Amino acid sequence: MDDALRVIDQRRFVRYDVNWVGQAVFPTGTTTIRVLDLSLGGARIALPLPFASYQAEIRQLRLPDIALLACSRRWSTDRLVGVQFDQPEQAYASLRTIIAQLEDRVRSSAG
Length: 111
Known about the structure:
Strand content: over 45%
Helix content: 10-25%
CATH architecture: Beta Barrel
CATH class: Mainly Beta
CATH topology: Thrombin, subunit H
Structural class: alpha+beta
């Protein structure tokens, strides 16, 4: 199975490993990040610097060519941050097609 599409755990929403470039939007500016996993409920991202160095909370996650989603930090350790999407309906509308494609790839690689 392709590691980039492996289902990594069971939560309220299934999370999928991805390796995408995105942007974290802070009140003070925007920084380029790496999206490590994604679900309909949130994402795990890697920042270029430790989270504490930004001295602000992440307000939005920009997934180029996909969506700009309002989010809140749920946890952080050094450069890794877990975010939860604040507007589940918007996240579902924006992500349902890409999540369906990830699900199809996981199914086809498993069979």
